Known about the structure:
0% of the residues lie in helices and 59% in strands.
Amino acid sequence: QVQVVESGGGLVQAGESLRLSCTTSNIFSIGAMGWYRQAPGKERELVVLITGGNAEYADSVKGRFTASSDNAKGTVYLQMNSLKPEDTAVYYCHVQNRYRHYWGQGTQVTVSS
């Protein structure tokens, strides 16, 4: 059974940090892993995508967020520093191989001002 499970979300104040984790089961030949987010009333947007060891970040998080992944283990992490209220969203783990894309159920991140 394929599983994509996020953890680490929560409620923090502006300027604080959070670390998100994503673990997967039964997904093989992973080619890319990353994070997306969706704020209320907005479309889902890319936060970071790691392909071939190279991470592509959204401009809004560059310099504040750092992602790391291990495709062989099927894990990806997102260290979020200097959080802002506009970072408030549901964060989704994204995994893809040559066959399809996989998504987790999402984890809520709320940043208060």
